[in-house]
Amino acid sequence: MNVSLAKVIQEISNDIVRAAREIMSSDVGVNTKVGINTLHGSNLYNQIKQSWKEGDNIVIDTIFNGYIEYIEWDRPPKYGKRPPVIEIAKWLRRKHIVSSNENIMSVAYAVSYAIWRDGWKGRKIFDALDKYVDSGFDNQYADLIFEGLFTETDNYFKD
């Protein structure tokens, strides 16, 4: 792979991560139960990684924290088991939502029960990102890749 094409692929990879963060910061990131965006600046937002590799095709991987499956999923009311109280307590501590350790477990239990009882509406980050990437290939990525492929060829024949 030539250097120009590698730079283009890296640029596209970075653009996809930037777009994922913009999507999380938009209305898509709003938790409808509380009416605020709970994804902007979250671990999910901060821990996006990207990589790419060349084989028969160039593959760009965008890697999200495993928690995204719960954010994406529409959980129906009273589905399966309640979410784990211990994990919710950890989240409450990390977010400084409950000030004393005396009542954190009871608050975590109430949150777990409310999630189980009411379910939640998923936030479709992947749908929005998929549309962004598709339009990116239609509008800019294809041209960037073409340029990257032929930059070295053009430079070779200029001499």
Number of E-state strands: 4
C-alpha termini separation: 21 Å
Helical residue percent?
Answer: 55-70%
Structural class of the helices, strands and pairings?
mainly alpha
Rg computed from alpha carbons, rounded to a whole number of angstroms: 21 Å
Report on the biggest sheet: 2 strands, antiparallel
Form type = elongated
> What is the domain total for the residues?
2
Task: Output the strand order for the largest sheet.
Answer: 1-2
Proportion of β residues?
A: 5-15%
Taken in chain order, the helices and strands follow as HEEHEEHHHH
Number of helices: 6
Low-confidence stretches: none
What is the residue-averaged pLDDT? 89
Question: How would you portray this structure in words?
Answer:
By secondary structure, the chain is mainly alpha-helical. The chain has two domains: 1-73 and 121-159, no CATH class; 75-119, no CATH class. Helices cover 59% and strands 10% of the residues. It has six helices and four strands, in the order H-E-E-H-E-E-H-H-H-H. It has helices at residues 3-25, 43-46, 68-72, 85-94, 101-118, 125-158; strands spanning 30-31, 36-37, 49-54, 58-63. It has a two-stranded antiparallel sheet. Strands 3-4 form a two-stranded antiparallel ribbon. Helix 1 (3-25) runs antiparallel to helix 6 (125-158) and helix 4 crosses helix 5. It is elongated, with a radius of gyration of 21 Å. The protein starts with a helix and ends with a helix.
